[in-house]
Here is the input.
Amino acid sequence: MKVLVLNGPNLNMLGIREPALYGKGTYNDLVIFIREAAKELDLDVEIFQSNCEGELVTAIQNALGKFDGIVINAAAYTHTSVAILDALKAVGLPTAEVHLTDINKREQFRRLSYVGMYAQKTVCGKGFDGYRECLQWLAVGGSK
Ligand code: DQA
Here is the structure.
């Protein structure tokens, strides 16, 4: 089973950005964590990070016919991007939304998730472990 893991803007700054919120682990630590979790679950994983909305949209479109599921932390685009929502709907792959922090317990504007309007699963507030939970959900069939 092939899974595409997408990370949005500023996640490349992990370890530097607001460590009290996001922790001290770097983006590279996250990549290693995801690869190890995927290996344990016998999943083939590709990981892509971009600060550009259009690049994330294109990555979602290109997943069609190539991947069996998507794990996405769209970061700030979660709360703004109809384009990412439309791309997810267009490809129709099983999709899990992940956030390191609990977006429901932060500023009001973070409570709206366009990604969540399509994603069949959401995990937030569990740090890196949330990615493992999303991969696990896909590995067992991606149902609610
Ligand atoms: C985030 C939460 C978003 O609100 C924020 O813009 C991010 C990271 C998270 O993983 O907790 O960049 O997606």
Summary: Strands lie at 2-7, 44-49, 69-73, 95-99, 121-124. Residues 10, 73, 75-76, 78, 99-101, 103, 110 surround DQA (CB under 6 Å).
